[in-house]
Specification:
By secondary structure, the chain is α/β, with parallel strands linked by helices. The chain folds into two domains: 183 residues, no CATH class; 157 residues, 3-Layer(aba) Sandwich (Rossmann fold). The chain has 15 helices and eleven strands. The strands form two sheets. It has a six-stranded parallel β-sheet. Strand 7, helix 8 and strand 8 form a beta-alpha-beta unit. The radius of gyration is 24 Å and the shape is globular. It binds 2-acetamido-2-deoxy-beta-D-glucopyranose (NAG) (2 copies). The site of one 2-acetamido-2-deoxy-beta-D-glucopyranose has 5 residues, from helix 4. This is Exostosin GT47 domain-containing protein. One of its GO terms (biological process) is glucuronoxylan biosynthetic process. GO terms for molecular function: 1,4-beta-D-xylan synthase activity; glucuronoxylan glucuronosyltransferase activity. Pfam families: Exostosin_GT47. Its main location: Golgi.
Length: 419
Amino acid sequence: MKISVWAAFVIFIFFFLLLLTIQAREHDHHTQQRERISGSAGDVLEDDPVGRLKVFVYELPSKYNKKILQKDPRCLTHMFAAEIFMHRFLMSSPVRTLNPEEADWFYTPVYTTCDLTPNGLPLPFKSPRMMRSAIQLISSNWPYWNRTEGADHFFVTPHDFGACFHYQEEKAIERGILPLLQRATLVQTFGQQNHVCLKQGSITIPPYAPPQKMQAHLIPPDIPRSIFVYFRGLFYDVGNDPEGGYYARGARAAVWENFKDNPLFDISTEHPTTYYEDMQRAVFCLCPLGWAPWSPRLVEGVIFGCIPVIIADDIVLPFADAIPWEDIGVFVAEKDVPNLDTILTSIPPEVVLRKQRLLANPSMKQAMLFPQPAQPGDAFHQILNGLARKLPHDRNVYLTPGEKTLNWTAGPVADLKPW
Ligand SMILES: *[C@@H]1O[C@H](CO)[C@@H](O)[C@H](O)[C@H]1NC(C)=O
Ligand SMILES: *[C@@H]1O[C@H](CO)[C@@H](O)[C@H](O)[C@H]1NC(C)=O
């Protein structure tokens, strides 16, 4: 009897200690997760946009949005799907107002990127006419466009070169941003400093990456990172650019030529089924600039805690005023690619650990995703926070009655044809 009480006591103490240890661990884990992250706009990632702005959503005929999606449901899964999910998000968001008189921002739900080739690549050829048609409609049916000529309107234009609406860079530059959108705020994935397709005040967003699919591949966080550098993707665009100088500005070709036989580099064009798991086993993931395909890797790196090595001179990264990319990633100049091995091996372990710790912060990961339904701090909320930080609008955005600054006939003649 006495012995069994003793035994029960010992067992209790044992469990008590065990519990304490687990709690201490959880506590460590928790404080680590709660580490605040701040970008140039301050500690804003966890801001709640509700109450800080009101958005009026124009009601457009379904041919500008729903009908287009019906024709091709693939638009819901490609990397530019944010254009559709942002519309759905706003419809049920508490920042939406049904009274345009009290709105800070106006949103036009037009799916200009949902026109896909059989291979699933978006064709932007009809986008300028479609956008123009939508603007014509809102400006004749409501008084708000004419009041500012778009300065308090935002548009989601996630295509390769945003509202330049072309997938070839020279053509995109030649076209420039659609003249009617000159005063509007653009929400786009494209981000490159000093480029005609990125104007001041635009909000750069991550590309859409399917959250459930990535979640399904999560492996336990204590699996050691046994791969030093990981990359899967094209190095040469053999069809369009056999010399390798234009595609990704030669950065990918340089990675391949210099490191294909280096045992620290796990790089290949073959896309294994263990791709997501492998990223979780890697210390560094390369994000060499491509036309557009580099950016899903950036999202994957953040989600999987694989330090993104960004090889893209003058890039403007998603939500760069809220996310401290310099602290999380490694930036390597395109010309320094041949020294990539030395650059990465000379980063002190404590710096690597700090970046990994920051990447483990759930608010970082949340900001990269467009989950269904939306969650606090996700990419939808970051877009709203970005719009809220631009308020109040400068008084000079309001035109005097009859004042016009936009030229409705500017731009390529073909864009003027009705849609
Ligand atoms: C806005 O201005 C255009 C001319 O630029 C005009 O055709 C249109 O009717 C105006 N809209 C409203 C609602 O008055
Ligand atoms: C508007 O653009 C067209 C085409 O570029 C040009 O011919 C016209 O002169 C411009 N109008 C104004 C008022 O600048």
